[in-house]
Design goal:
Layout (H helix, E strand, L loop, with lengths): L4 E4 L4 E11 L3 E5 L13 E5 H6 L7 E7 L2
Antiparallel strand pairs: 1-2, 2-3, 2-5, 3-4
Length: about 70
């Protein structure tokens, strides 16, 4: 399943859906799936501490939505 990536030029933001790839000792590693090998990821790989995910009530199998913005 390819994730969606949206760019909002009015607010200078990019939103990407990330899937959990691997659980490490203190983090979860997430990856962005792209539509094909010819599409470059906007974020790529992201490591998130388990404590942060616990605050968000993350459960294995949940998807993360990452939004980047410029201020």
């Amino acid at each position: 399943m390819a994730t969606t990536s949206k760019k909002n030029t009015a607010t200078n933001t990019v939103t990407v859906e990330m899937i959990a790839e691997k659980e490490t000792k203190g983090t979860w590693r997430f990856k962005e799936e792209v539509e094909s090998e010819f599409v470059a990821p906007k974020i790529g790989t992201l490591y998130v501490p388990k404590t942060t995910l616990g605050e968000l009530e993350f459960k294995k199998g949940d998807m993360l939505v990452m939004t980047l913005s410029v201020k």
